[in-house]
Amino acid sequence: GAGVSQSPRYKVAKRGQDVALRCDPISGHVSLFWYQQALGQGPEFLTYFQNEAQLDKSGLPSDRFFAERPEGSVSTLKIQRTQQEDSAVYLCASSLGDTQYFGPGTRLLVL
Amino acid sequence: GQQVMQIPQYQHVQEGEDFTTYCNSSTTLSNIQWYKQRPGGHPVFLIQLVKSGEVKKQKRLTFQFGEAKKNSSLHITATQTTDVGTYFCADQGAQKLVFGQGTRLTINP
After folding, report:
1. For residue range B71-107, what is the model confidence (pLDDT) as tens digits?
2. B21 close to B43: Cβ distance less than 8 angstroms
3. Which of A96, A98, A106 to probe by mutation at the B interface, max B CB count within 10 Å?
4. Using CA atoms, how far apart are residues B48 and B56, in angstroms rounded to an integer?
5. What is the longest distance spanned by two Cα atoms in chain B?
6. Minimal Cα distance from B31: which residue of A?
7. Where are the alpha helices (DSSP H) in A1-111?
8. How many helices (H) and strands (E) does chain A have?
9. Chain B residues in contact with A42 (beta carbon < 8 A)
10. A29 pLDDT higher than 80
11. What residues of chain B, 31 to 60, have a C-beta less than 8 Å from chain A?
12. Is A77 helix (H, G, I), strand (E, B) or coil?
């Protein structure tokens, strides 16, 4: 595709529910990143993949957060037992070199 | 961990006025990237600065990297309504980006 796509664009979850957020990177991009952006803040790094290998997951806030990229293309960020503080926009970015191309994000609201 | 501070948090200008946002760190920055995020949109890459003292221009936008690589700035000359948005600096170290809090620019036409 022309850019990074993410789905769903919006997700409302009840507290305690599990959610799965999908990212389709630009074709051929080796690197894939997940960021969390709270309202009025800059994006904060969650995790990074190079192909299928998760090289850095230092930003994942708790063990409720899990990401995978099994075939080195599409990635899924899963949040278990969602809590209200998980409400944010989750951005995915992919890159070949230094420039990261961001998707439109998934806006998650936990009630 | 690495922290990148950005000021001001908000800036409101009249169309045609200049605008500057500043990015600072207590530690040496690796590479500085600048992004623009329109309201309701996602960050879009503007430019990367790598070298100490580097200055780059894109039409009305001028980007600078400090000599000590601890600060950077973005200056927009003669703002236009299309410049509205939040401007973020980000330090790129070990692949991941560490973003500043952003400067939200609003413009009175």
Report:
1. 999 999 999 999 999 999 999 987 899 999 999 999 9
2. no
3. A98
4. 9
5. 41
6. A98
7. none
8. 0, 11
9. 6, 88, 90, 99-102
10. yes
11. 31, 33, 41-45, 48
12. strand
Cβ–Cβ of B96/A91 closer than 8 Å?
A: no
Interface contact flag, A101 B88, Cβ < 8 Å? no
Q: Is A93 exposed, middle or buried (0-12, 13-18, 19+ CB in 10 A)?
A: buried
Cβ distance of A102 and B44 shorter than 8 Å: yes
Q: For residue B60, give how far its alpha carbon lies from the nearest alpha carbon of chain A (Å).
A: 21
β-pair type (B10-14, B103-108): parallel
Tokens of A111: 């009630």
- Residue A13 tokens, joined: 């979850």
A51-93 per-position pLDDT tens digit: 999 999 999 999 999 999 999 999 999 999 999 999 999 999 9
Task: Tell me if chain A has a CB within 8 Å of the CB of B98.
Answer: yes
Report the side by side order of strands in the sheet with B61-65.
Answer: B5-7, B19-24, B71-76, B61-65, B55-58
**Is A56's CB within 8 Å of B95's CB?**
yes
pLDDT tens figures, B42-61: 999 999 999 999 999 999 99
Q: How is residue A9 written in tokens? A: 């664009």
